[in-house]
Amino acid sequence: QAQGMKYPRYITVDGEGNILVSDFWSHSVCVYNEDGQFQFQFGGHGSGDGQLRSPCGICTDRAGNIIVADWGNHRVELFDKTGRFLKHITTDMEGPYAVTMAPQGQLVVTDDKDHTVSIFNKY
Fold first, then answer.
1. CA torsion sign, 54 to 59 to 64 to 65?
2. Checking DSSP bridges between strand 85-90 and strand 75-79, what pairing results, if any?
3. Which pLDDT score, from 0 to 100, does residue 47 have?
4. Which residue, 7, 35, 75, 91, has most beta carbons within 10 Å?
5. Residue 2 neighbours by CB under 8 Å, 6+ apart
6. Cβ–Cβ contacts within 10 Å for residue 121, how many?
7. Residue range 78-101: average pLDDT?
8. Strands across the sheet with 75-79, in order?
9. Cα maximum dimension of the chain
């Protein structure tokens, strides 16, 4: 179900079974329930708090927060499970591309411009 998506890139499923999809061209994240029904969308083009520019990787942490690799803004963003902006995890990456959570709760981020992998023990 497209629901306004223009160029879906990355996908993850949270602990409640919701499906989250980053959309590179609509500069947003779409959230669907486990049956694929659209729930809500957040982000939007820009560089302000809560805005995204060409988001790529997406994952959730143990608390259910949503982590987005905001590729176009060179940062990694933290949102709560409703899509409310919480904070910038980092703002000094060249091209944050993929994100995942390691077993001990560390955030792992790849950077496709620096050709690096970064590990954040606390965020």
1. negative
2. antiparallel
3. 97
4. 75
5. none
6. 9
7. 97
8. 55-60, 66-70, 75-79, 85-90
9. 38
Q: Tokens at residue 90, please?
A: 């980092």
The fraction of the chain above a pLDDT of 90, given in percent, is 93
Q: How far apart are CA 115 and CA 18, in angstroms?
A: 31
3 state SS of 104:
coil
Question: How high is the pLDDT of residue 2?
Answer: 56
* Residue 1 confidence (pLDDT) above 60: no
CA 91: distance to chain centroid? 14
Tens digit of pLDDT for each residue in 22-50? 999 999 999 999 999 999 999 999 999 99
Lookup: tokens for 60: 């959730």
Distance of alpha carbon 15 from the chain centroid? 15
Question: What tokens does 3 get?
Answer: 């629901």
